[in-house]
Every structure is written in C-alpha cells, then in structure tokens.
Amino acid sequence: MQIPVVLAINDAYLQQAKVLIYSLYDNAKEETRYDVYILHYKLSLETQEALEIFYKKENFRGRLTFLGMSEAQWQSIPFVGKWGKETNYRLFLPNLLPHLDKIIYLDADVLVLADLTEYYALDLKETAFGSVIEDILAFRRYYVFTQLAKLDKQHMSYQADWEYINAGILFLNLKKLRAIDLEEKALRLLSLLPKSGFWLEHFRPPHIDPLIMPDQDILFYLAFAYTDGITYVPFAYNYLLFVLAKSQIENEASAEYEAYLAFLNRRVPKDVALPSSPVMIHFAAMHPWKVLHMKGRYADRYHVYAKKIGWNSTKYSYFYFLAKVRNYIKHRLLLPDFKEQMRRVFKRV
C-alpha cells in the first residue's frame, strides 16, 4: 500500500526528522510504501541534500518530496502569542496537495513503532480528520469553541460531546478540507485571535490553561462548524507522553491503567480495533534530546533510533541531575512563591 505522510520542519529539526523517517520505515510491512513530504519554508539546500543522501543510503521504499511554502503563504500567517508560524503550515496542505484525498500529518517529535496501514485505512467519512482525544477540562473546550464561533460570526452552541483533540498527529481528510476552504477560513480566524496569545485575559478559573493553541484550536472549531466533526482514533495512534507524565503511579500492567486507556478511547468507533501497544509515541513537551527528558518514558527507544542515524541524542546526559534540580527549584520553589507574592502585591494596588 502507498501511504502519504507529511512532516513540517526547519533546519533545526534535521536529526529529529531523520529519526522519525527511520522509525517509520523500520517498522513498515514489506508491502508498505511511504511517500514522505517535507513541508517547509526556505529549508536550506544543505538540509535538503542531507535528507536525500540519508534516503539513498538507507534505501527506503518510497518517495521523498520537498513541499515548499511560498513567500506569499508565509507572509499570510499572523503571529499569535509565543507561537512561530511553523505550527500553522499544516493549514495549507489541502491546497498544496490537490492530488491527494487524505494524508497522515506527523509532528517532528514523533517516533513510529508499527506499520500505519490500519491507521490509514480508517474511514473518515465526512469528518475533517482523525485524531485522539486530548482530555482537557470541559470549560476550555466550551470557551474556545464559543469564542471562535463569535469571531466567525456563526450562531452555534457548543455541544458537550465535542471532545478536544491533539493536532500533533492527524489523519487529514484533504478532500473535505478543500471543500470547506480550510486555508481561507483558518487564516481569517488566525488574524482575529487575541495577539496576546491567551484566551481568558481577565478571568481564569483554576486549572484552566489559557494559552491559545492557534492551529489546534481552529481545527477543533472548524471540524464541528463546517464538517461532520472529528473521527476519534485510539490513543495508541498518538501516545501523548505528557498526558501520562503526571501519573503518581506508572503501572501499565494495572487494571486502573487499562480503565484510563478505555476512558481515553471512549469515542473510538466500535468497529475500529484498539492496538495492544503504542503505534506512535508523541514526545510533545518531553523531548528526549533535551537534558531534562533524556531518561523519560520511551526515551530509551528514541535514543536507539537516534544512534542508528548517527546522532548522539544523549550528548549532554551528564547534566541530567543538574537539570532536574534546576527544574525543581524553578517550578516548585521559586515560581509558585513569586506568583503568589505578585498576586498579593497587585491585589493591594
């Protein structure tokens, strides 16, 4: 089977892209062929050549294509908060790939541990894309949707069963997204978002993350506003490590862990098989090439693949203990106290 896959990178993510691609092919069935697209804006010729040489050296089964953003497309993306423009490149994919009806989008911090044929065979019907649930508090889902509907001048009410998603791994229904003109709608909404980069600028309930996730929030909204919604897929297809990182006890052999996975998979169609182990590991916010997370969950699997492509991803591992101490001081000792002091000061003003 021929399966198209796309990842968006810049020059700083060459090694991560090579690890992802190597893991993709290393776990492919004999009959699987991947057509890999590199979505970029002005990727250097050195990086492109390095990837081409890597492809030829490993003799991968499939094509490598560089998909460049035009200057006009890049200029049309507004900056929102702390986010770079790269996170919004995927919004152009329906028009950049008019010959494709669907494609798998992967962030560069992903490791593939199994063949993706079953994932690619999922029936998206008339939904915008396939995604796992990112289980955030209901109020944020409600607020994001209602604010975007207001900016979009649509009179729609949020429905409680509209679960939020993680856009780091998506099975995109390009045909449907072209039909609703994703690019035009997404860029218009991006230009209307608060430039501060935050929702809830004047009141923030406890435990609510006010940070705007530009493309992710917009994709969530547009899926329900203009298509039949989202096809929710098994958590194994986007095994989000940061979701599990806060676990007090990490016993994956326990009945409680199985119950938690069942909860995360609650919206997966009944006819979709649940993989018995993670198919794609997503290292979002827990990058194993960074000192603080070099010994994190599944980091050892990542380092194995990094070694295969000639990258020493544990080069600074001897700073691990110092990084842990620094992180503890910053987040447990300094920041909470500093925030509380500032809150008290401004409350008196």
Automatic annotation (TrEMBL):
Gene3D superfamilies, A to Z: Spore Coat Polysaccharide Biosynthesis Protein SpsA, Chain A (3.90.550.10)
Keyword Metal-binding attached: yes
PANTHER family: GLYCOSYLTRANSFERASE 8 DOMAIN-CONTAINING PROTEIN (PTHR13778), LIPOPOLYSACCHARIDE 1,3-GALACTOSYLTRANSFERASE (PTHR13778:SF47)
Highest taxon in the source lineage: Bacteria
A Pfam family that the UniProt record links to this protein: Glyco_transf_8
GO molecular function: glycosyltransferase activity; metal ion binding
Transmembrane segments: none
Record's keyword terms, sorted: Glycosyltransferase, Metal-binding, Transferase
Entries under InterPro entries matching the protein: Glyco_trans_8, Glycosyltrans_8_dom-fam, Nucleotide-diphossugar_trans
Name assigned to this protein: Glycosyltransferase family 8 protein
